[in-house]
Amino acid sequence: MIALVVFGRQDHLAAVRRQLRRQPVVALLGPRQVGKTTLARAIADAAASPVTRFDLEHPADLARLSDEATALQDLRGLVVIDEVQRRPELFPFLRVLADRSRRPASFLVLGSASPHLLKQSSETLAGRVTYHELDGLGLSDIRVSQWRRLWLRGGYPRSFLARSDAESGAWRADLRRTYVEQDLPALGPGYPARTIERVWEMLAHCHGQIWNGAEIARAFGVSHTTSRRHLDLLADTFMIRLLSPWSENIGKRQVKSPKLYVRDTGLLHHLLGIGTQDELVRHPRVGASFEGFAIDAVIRRLGADRRECYFWATHQGAELDLFVVRGRQRWGFEIKHTVAPQATKSMHIAMQDLGLNRLDVIHIGPNTYPLARNIRAVAFDRLQMDLTPLS
Fold first, then answer.
1. Are 16 and 26 in contact, with CB atoms under 8 Å apart?
2. Which of 26, 176, 204, 224 could disulfide-link 271, Cβ–Cβ 3.0 to 4.6 Å?
3. How many CA atoms lie within 13 A of 368 on its CB side?
């Protein structure tokens, strides 16, 4: 309960409660140790109806659900099933329960979003399930003065709350080991854990770059299709985030491959061997690291759906780190690890070619101020104040 008491996560609590009122099944998805169980416990503790919990990492609970009809059909109120990806065969029976009249029970299922989990739930529970993705801690969960710690350690609650950087780093090393030694093998023989770990390490050095499947395939002696399957697995299990390219008919050749980021900057820094703030600011990938961190913070502050978010780049060199489209509105964002950003030719090209309403340059300096018409510099530590959520 520590993370919830200290940081609230009230937005997530309220959203999941609303979803449980609307749908018979809510799937709370996110990486291991991000706080799904803690959030579900808070929801269950405040529930007015009876609550039944199953944790499928516990052999006794797993055994109880070997006969799902006997275990589930007579339950009333809220039923919480943690680590549901360990029993994907539950989903067809959850569909039967979801279709009952008068809905005697609602189901909150928690999972680490394995491809098998997503495939099973989407196929068998179409129209009956709502997905809620739980990210790590963000700017709204901490004091503004703590953002550099959040950047270094990442958003996993235990990593952020650790008593020292060394303790935080050790926790992230354990998380990586668990992911490689337990989570990946559980997905089946088609996903070689050690190979995927090496791909993950290599992708950390490509953080903030365009996906080059041919380069990865050559490095590991596999086909382009196999390298893409490894990438998709890392994305599906919340280790990698892919930002789609924006392309439209503007008479210029545009990049059409996704950009990739290690989802949690704490894990990125672990993979790069960065343990302290001093090491981070001296590392050659500091700019790319800040880019991924700031893009995530901007998307959260805007309240944008990931499907509304892109990057844009042309083969002539013009680019935009983040392009957000909602209806007729278009916003652009450039990320600069500098205290004194300037308007550039590339920014003016993006304004014209993409028809941007405005372009914000996120930087690490102390002030927010205009750079040019409809272009302004926005201080990162003022992001929550100076950036307005989308309407």
1. yes
2. 204
3. 14
Query: CA 229, CA 119: separation in Å to the nearest integer?
Result: 15
Final residue in a domain of this structure, among 82, 102, 133: 133
State which of 133, 153, 177 marks the end of a domain.
Answer: 133
What is the count of structural domains for the chain?
2
Task: Give the number of C-alpha atoms closer than 13 A to the C-alpha of residue 243, restricted to the C-beta side.
Answer: 26
**The one-letter amino acid at 93:** F
The residues, any chain, with a CB within 8 Å of residue 52's CB and separated by 6 or more, are: 75, 77, 78, 79, 80
Residue 362 parent element (H or E): strand 358-363
Residue showing tokens 């950390």: 204
* Token pair for 332: 């652009």
Alpha helix positions (H), 78-186? 90-98, 115-124, 147-153, 157-161, 165-178
Q: Which of 154, 165, 353, 319 lies closest to 241, judged by CA?
A: 154
Kindly state the DSSP code that residue 104 receives in the 8-state scheme: -
Tell me the pLDDT tens digit for each residue of 117-153. 667 676 778 888 899 999 999 999 999 999 999 999 9
User: How far apart, in whole angstroms, are the C-alpha atoms of residue 389 and residue 303?
Assistant: 6
Q: Give the three-state DSSP class for 182.
A: helix
| CA 242 from centre of chain | 10
pLDDT digit string (tens) for 1-28?
Answer: 344 433 557 889 999 999 999 999 999 9
Distance of alpha carbon 118 from alpha carbon 139, whole angstroms: 28
12: Cβ–Cβ under 8 A, 6 or more apart, which residues? 39, 132, 134
d(CA 56, CA 188): 18
What are the tokens at 225? Answer: 């299709």
On whether both 256 and 342 belong to a single domain, the answer is yes
